[in-house]
Structure formats: C-alpha cells, structure tokens
Amino acid sequence: MQVIQDTAVRLLKMAATKLPDDIEEALRAAYERETDPTAKTQFSAILENIEIARTGVPMCQDTGIIIFYVKVGSKFPFMDEIKAALEKATRIATESVPLRPNAVNPIVGGNSGDNTGVKIPWINWEIVLGDSLEVIVFPKGGGSENVCIVGMLKPGVGLTGVKKLVVDNAMNYMGKACAPNIIGVGIGGGADIAIKIAKQQLLRPLNDKHPEPEVAQIEEELMEAINSTGIGPMGLGGKTTVLGVKVDYAMRHPASLPVGVAVQCWAARHSKAIITKDLKITYVTHPLEGE
Amino acid sequence: MAEYHFTTPLSEEDVRKLKVGDIVYVTGEHVYTARDEAHHRALEMFEKGEKPPVDFEGSVIYHVGPVAKEVNGKWMIVSAGPTTSARMDLFEDEFLRKYRARIIIGKGGMGARTLAALKEAGAVYCSFTGGCGALAAKGLKEVRAYEWQDLGMPEALWVITAEKFGPLLVTMDSHGNSMHDVVSKKVQDAKSEVYSKIGVSE
To answer: Is the pLDDT of residue A290 over 70?
Structure first.
C-alpha cells in the first residue's frame, strides 16, 4: 500500500511539473518552425514556462480532475490495495505539490478541497496477464476537456464524414483548448466506447503511427488539414495548431457510426510507472536521476 | 510590434498608445484577479453604492483562478495561468465603464460588447499564453491581500504586486481592433482549402 501510494504521489508531482520528453521536443521544434511573430511569442512563453515548472512548480494552474489508467496483472499480489492507495496519493499530492482542488459536487455544489469525492479520482481498470502493476496518471485541464465531443454519425457519411467532424470541431473551438493540441479520435463501438478510445489515444507517443496503414493515413491527413487552418498556438495564428492526431477504432453496429473526439492542450501531462510483484518500481516517462 | 513597460496605476493616455500586436510588461501594486463571481460582486456593490476593498481605476484585471499556498501566514501565488475570458463577456463592458480598469488580461479573447467598451472607456485586452501558470507566477511577486475569500480560492479577489508581469500580448486595443476577429476570419477563408485536404467539397 505504502509503495503504491508513494509511487502515485511522485507520478502526480512529475506529471504536473514536467512534460514527457516527446511533447517538449515537439514544442521546441514548433518554435523553430514558426515564422509568425505572434506564434513565436506564444511558443517562447511556453518554453520558458516549461523551464520554470521543471523546478517543481505546476506548469499550469489547472491541474485537472485526476484520472488514473491502471493495468493490473492477474497475479499482482496487492490488487485490493490499489484503489485506496491512489485516493490517498491524490489527497497527499494536492497538499504537497500543490495541485488545485478541482473536485466539485455537481448536485449540491461545493469543492471537496482535496481532489477526491464521488467516483473521483476516476480509475480506468484493465486486468492483464502477469504479475505487475502499471499506473498512468493523466491530469487534464478543463479548457481542453470542454471541447471534447461525441458524434453519432449516419454510417452513410463514411470516413469523410468522420474527418469532417474532427476538422469542424477544431475550427469551431479555435484556440480555446490552449493550442497546439493533440487530438484523439475513436471510431466505432458505441458512444461511450468511441470517446474512451479517443481519450486513450492522447497517451500515445507523438511519433507513434497506427500499425494499420489505412488508419495511419487518416491520422496524417487530419493533422495536415488542421495545421492548414492557420489557427496556430492559442488561436492567435500560426502553422502549428496540432502536434499530433491519433486515431483508433472498434467494430461498429451496422446502424451506427460513433465518433469520439478528445482534445488535449499543449500541456499534455502524464506520468507512468510499473511496479513488480516484489515492489520494484520503474518510472517510465519520468525516470529517477541516474536511471 | 512595440514593447512597453508600464507601472500601475495606468492612465487612459498610456493604454491609448497600445495597438494590437504590442507586447506589455506590468509592474506595480494595482493588479487584481477577477473571474465571474468577483465581477458580479463588484457590479452589485456599485449598484448599491458600496465601495469594493480596492480602487479599480487604472488597474490591471487578470482573469485567473490561481493555485496559492500559505507559508508562515503569508499567501503566495504558485501557478496562475489565465482562464477563458469569454465567460466574463457578461460583465466586462459594464465593469470597464464603471470602474475604469485599463488592462484586462486573459486567454481566448472577448466579444463585440467588450471590444466596444474598451474603445469607449480607453482600455485594452491582453492575452497571456494559456497554460503558462509557472511563468505567470514569477511576475506575480507578492500577495498583499486575499479578499472575498468566501468565493473560494479561484474566484476570490487577489490583491497583487506585480514585477515585470508578462509578456502580455495586446490582442484587442482601444481603437476597435481585435486579433481574435482577424484570425477567425482568416480561418473561415481557409475553410475550403482545409476541406479539400480531407476530400470534403462545400
């Protein structure tokens, strides 16, 4: 329990204060690529912000509603301690990092003050073969969450209709989601499955292409189309509107074409660790010094 | 694209100089945070003839819900990037006319009502890069008071001394120009070209 809890506290701290390397590299490359002076000012502020945050300050004041993705091996010996450890870690990190208290009761109002409450932190569970535990913490801000959508399209509109939905959404919210964004698209399944797949795509490395060439091509086309809108960083104009578009799918019902579109701000914060059955920890996205 | 360094309080003459695309850094004691609820309360107090705890004339109003922490009885701002300003469109025009604040800071821009009020009252809207909470906190040096605490940490009125707070990009000036409107129009104009890349014809 203590090991899982301590690991999760470090994951929360690292996620809030330091971007995964691939995201940071993409932002630096975008700064170099932009020629528009306004776009340059936005990226230079972002890069300076990243440097300050690295010293242990949350890079964005909106540290999100706390979400975990957990893959637990069927033979992991401490399975029944995971939930309580993650909740406790959330309370501790809220105080120690600090994170902004963001858990508000939608029925009776009021902020719980510690980022926990009814069903929050939300834990996405997956049981896999094996004896270790993988934990990803994924704090996501409200601005980008507010422009996520699910479209229940008519199957007749085909993949062109799917692409149009994604592009229209981007042209509608412009810079509101703190562009440059990463967009995750989930096609098929059902309404809930489509948006779940979409959100999971946001955790893929930026250089990761979908293994099926047809899907990889959709990713590329969407990225190129959205970057040609000229929306730019923070919607103030420029070449870089998205850093990546990631697509995946599930089989669909003959009568349905559900499409989930999940949007991530430039502060694409997440942190991942693996804990073995002997409680050995490997920090994947944010390795310890010397590892 | 000129760069300006201002010390608060600001005069109408100061901000009338500013044009869309200019960069501003602010230093001084008249920097206040206000989101939906603080705007609402300030306007209510004006109606009732009551005085808010600070004088907003010549001030800088920042749309932000900060992360703050109390160390040895003194509050400090930890991270404080801007929130979406469009929500404050409901209040800002009246607020500007009544209280004469000179710089509004936020992200995403504001609408036609606010743009008209900026022109009439002599004020500008500046964008601070969204998500840059750590950078913003660096310029928000000292918390002098934490007013309207009953509204909660994000919605309260934080009274701040700023030191070279910026870069603030003027995206709506006092002459009726809005960079947000210009970019929106460009994006609309690019629409058929964007559609052609995904095989959609309008």
So the answer is: no
Domain for residue B33, yes or no? yes
Two structure tokens written together for B151: 């509204």
Which residues does chain A have within 8 Å of residue B66's beta carbon, measured at their own beta carbons?
A: 61
Active site residues of B: 39
Residue pLDDT, tens place only, A246-266: 999 999 999 999 999 999 999
DSSP-assigned beta bridge partners for residue A71? A126, A134
Residue B130 lies in a domain: yes
Reference A268, options A1, A24, A6, A72; nearest CA is A24
- Between chains, do A230 and B133 touch, taking CB under 8 Å as contact? no
Start-to-end Cα distance in chain B? 37
Check CB contact of B151 with chain A, cutoff 8 Å. no
Give the structural domain span for B148.
Answer: 23-177
Residues comprising chain A, all counted:
291
| Portion 152-181 of B in contact with A at CB < 8 A | 152-154, 167, 169, 171, 179-180
SS3 A143: helix
In whole angstroms, what is the distance from residue B154 CA to residue B104 CA? 17
Q: Which residues of B touch A60 (CB under 8 A)?
A: 79, 81, 131-133
3-state secondary structure A28-72: HHHHHHCCCHHHHHHHHHHHHHHHHHCCCCCCCCCCCECEEEEEE
Is A95 touching B (CB cutoff 8 A)? no
Q: Which pLDDT belongs to residue A209?
A: 97
Q: Which of B79, B84, B187 sits opposite A57 (nearest CB)?
A: B79
- Planar angle of CA A165, A167, A168, nearest 5 degrees: 65
Contacts of A45 in chain B (CB under 8 A): 128-129, 132, 135, 167
